[in-house]
Design brief:
Number of strands of chain B: 12
Shape of chain B: globular
Largest sheet of chain B: 6 strands, mixed
Strand content of chain A: under 5%
Radius of gyration of chain B: 19 Å
Largest interface: A-B, 18 and 25 residues
CATH topology of chain A: MetI-like fold
Structural class of chain A: mainly alpha
Number of helices of chain B: 9
Oligomer: heterodimer
Number of strands of chain A: 0
Helix content of chain A: over 70%
CATH superfamily of chain A: MetI-like
Strand order of the largest sheet of chain B: 8-9-10-3-11-12
Order of helices and strands of chain A: HHHHHHHH
Amino acid sequence: MDWSWDRAWEIAPELFTRGLAVTLQATLGGAVLAFTLGLALALLLRSRRPWVRLPVRGFVEVVRSTPLLAQLFILYYVFPSTFGITMSALTTGIVGLGVHYATYTAEVYRSGIDGVPRGQWEAAVALNLPRFRTWTGVILPQAIRRVLPALGNYLIGIFKESPQLALITVVDVLGLARILAAEDFRYLEPLTLAGLFFLVIAIPSSILVRRLERRLEHG
Amino acid sequence: MNTDETPWMIRFDKVVKRYGDNTVLRELDFHVRPGERVTLIGPSGSGKTTILRLLMTLEKVSGGLIEVDGECLTHIRRGDKRVPADEKHIRPIRRKIGMVFQQFNLFPNMNVLRNITEAPVRALGRPRAEAEAKARELLDMVGLADKALEHPSRLSGGQQQRVAIARALAMEPEILLLDEVTSALDPELVTGVQDLLRDIASSSDLTILCVTHEMGFARDISHRVLMFDQGQIVEDGPPEKIFSDPAEQRTRDFLQAVIQT
């Protein structure tokens, strides 16, 4: 089968408007959730109270040790019937991606927080800074700065995993490519375009993350 | 000698500090009067820095108690019992104490001015404008008026330590703890920081507790020198006496060793 430019031009607009919108929503929504929930998990995991720390640790372990796809299926098919929680497919996907990756970014934040020198805590105590302000003004700004490149890599990871949402009926760039292919059984153009789309976003993003890494090391 | 009219600013009462099996302080008793400047000397590991860290509440006592300005820093009374003090009890007492660290510990995510204003604004609730005016005065005093908006990493070690001193003073402490404040500095920067501290000491009524290996500085700055060894005070006296005519063999040995290095 030969490459058909006509077919490529025909499907490109739809692929890169409707499909792109869904992929970006899933990626950005998932990332925002992963980055905020991950921070919350990291802080809860540091709690001195075992009844806070241990259940959170258990949750993190379970989520990390099971496939994202299994979690998506449970959120999409089990939650509505068993818990009465019904969300649109895209929302379910965002929650699934966000929660799944939050358990990873929690670890990233933890290492960032541990990396802040002890002297910073001690200076905050010596200055009688309130505990909350010590976190928000001294520790977290330094910790998060350290882990920005790692978070950037997870953002790219979420982006690349987002097509899994197709299995809970979310039609993203890749899902749309399959549907378009099914119209005339020409798979070459839609799937090539979809693949190119991921490459075109992921490669410059990786380069940006590496630049950021270098800048933070030297700054 | 002490009467009710002149209460102690700092009182250690049978203070014990253990790290696991290692006992750093053994039933240590000592008192410091308001405005008194005391230098702690002695071999490393003798517990000098631990004393400062206990006062700053960076560590907890294993036994005994510490009073600051007549209030118990380490314990509160609950009924008939004495229980370890909580953060709420500690905060107003800790307000009276400031500390300058060997490694400066400036906040790298804030510029110089912000480093100094952060605690007055957030811990004392001062209006930002007032805190900044005061910070600029302090920066002027430490000779860094032109560095207010610099990032700490762009300053030399000596300059960073001056900022740390200004930052501690911005909280208007009654007690200033100096923990080997020139040990991490390049030799040519030591004198400047020491001169600054001498000026501050002589022009204020701060109570100062100082741990240092610089005997010349100790002699200049202090009213009293405490020689420590193995978690206890070996000798206690005015600097002229301790440095010229020490009574104890252990003090003589220590001074000998320090002078040789």
